[in-house]
Write a structure and sequence with these properties.
Layout (H helix, E strand, L loop, with lengths): L3 E5 L11 H6 L1 H13 L3 H7 L2 H4 L2 H21 L6 E4 L3 H8 L5 H21 L2 E7 L3 H11 L2 E8 L2 E7 L3 H10 L3 E4 L15 H9 L10 E2 L31 H7 L7 H10 L4 E5 L4 H9 L4 E5 L2 H10 L2
Helix pairs in contact: 2-5, 5-6, 5-7, 6-7, 7-10, 8-9, 10-11
Length: about 325
């Protein structure tokens, strides 16, 4: 039997219609949207019908993506497929926390709403953007970003791709420097320089909120963006630096610390997937819109099974493949 992990989508532009199909076919998915609608009226209408420009404002994108991810995951669980481990990219890590029993759905939605507002506020005060850089090594990307200034590698996605966040004022210079180094810089449709120091001012507010929360012990392994290692039970957090968590400011690596730290620090996605594969996971199911994480995983290790659930059709295809 395959050892199944769910991976939860976390970034990028979204289109009206997200969630509509899965909600129409799955009571479990509908329940997620209904709960969110009670907490934030109008969110379902925005997901289903837009307009796109409002949906793609960070303050709206993050809650919308959260409920779509969770709805897709719950539809899969409703159909009899349960994960033995989980990881989420950026915002998706909050969804993973729900699936692993670390946070309740309502608690996580409240955090996502706060996170989205804080990060949008940061971008309005410190406008930034992000580029996917391909055809360069991580070391080369580090060197280019350092030479340009106000630019930081933030998402180590897969072999051959690192995302760099930068201040808007150096965006053209960064793209040109990447080209001169032999790479290609693809500007991403995002609402800010996420996971970079331009998000620093969001962290104290989020950390203060998280420090007041009660978290559950993980019921399944959940791999953190910041460390590429599993969350520990609440009474046994990582107290000392490891090869994957060398920054002392992340320690002790409690859920509260991990979730606030990742807002302005890199996502170690490739290392996370490699750690999960080393732990025995050989079947990954991406839940939520798109297939971005599926593409990363295929480049990290083409030998593992990869599926996705974004709507009723992809749910049916995944269930058939798992028979």
């Amino acid at each position: 039997m395959p050892r199944i992990a769910f991976v939860c989508a976390g970034q990028g532009a979204q289109a009206p219609g997200m969630g509509a199909d899965i909600v129409a076919h799955s009571p479990a998915a509908k329940a997620v949207f209904d709960q969110a609608e009670a907490l934030r009226p109008g969110l379902t209408e925005l997901c289903f019908n837009g307009p796109a420009d409002q949906l793609n404002q960070t303050i709206n994108t993050q809650p919308a993506l959260f409920i779509d991810d969770l709805a897709c995951a719950n539809a899969l669980i409703e159909a009899g497929v349960t994960p033995e481990g989980v990881a989420g990219f950026s915002l998706g890590e909050v969804v993973a926390c729900v699936l692993a029993g670390v946070m309740s759905a309502e608690q996580a939605f409240d955090f996502v709403t706060l996170r989205a507002a804080a990060m949008q506020d940061c971008n309005e005060r410190h406008p930034g953007t992000m580029f996917a850089v391909v055809k360069l090594t991580p070391i080369q990307v580090d060197q280019v970003a350092a030479a340009v200034g106000l630019a930081w590698p933030v998402n180590y996605n897969c072999p051959g791709q690192v995302v760099v966040a930068c201040d808007e004022s150096v965006a053209d210079a960064l793209a040109q420097a990447v080209k001169q180094a032999g790479g290609r810089a693809i500007r991403l449709a995002v609402g800010g320089a996420f996971h970079s120091p331009l998000m620093d001012e969001a962290v104290p507010q989020l950390a203060a909120w998280l420090d007041q929360q009660q978290f559950g012990d993980p019921t399944i392994p959940i791999f953190a963006n910041a460390t590429a290692a599993p969350y520990e039970p609440s009474n046994r957090s990582i107290e000392q630096a490891t090869d994957l968590a060398t920054d002392p400011s992340i320690l002790p690596a409690t859920p509260a610390k991990l979730l606030s730290y990742q807002v302005n620090h890199p996502v170690l996605w490739q290392k996370s997937i490699e750690a999960m594969i080393a732990d025995g996971f050989d079947c990954f199911i991406e839940v939520g819109p798109g297939k971005t994480l599926s593409g990363f995983i295929k480049k990290i290790n083409p030998d593992v099974a990869i599926h996705n659930v974004a709507d009723a059709a992809s749910l049916a295809t995944t269930l058939e493949a798992l028979k």
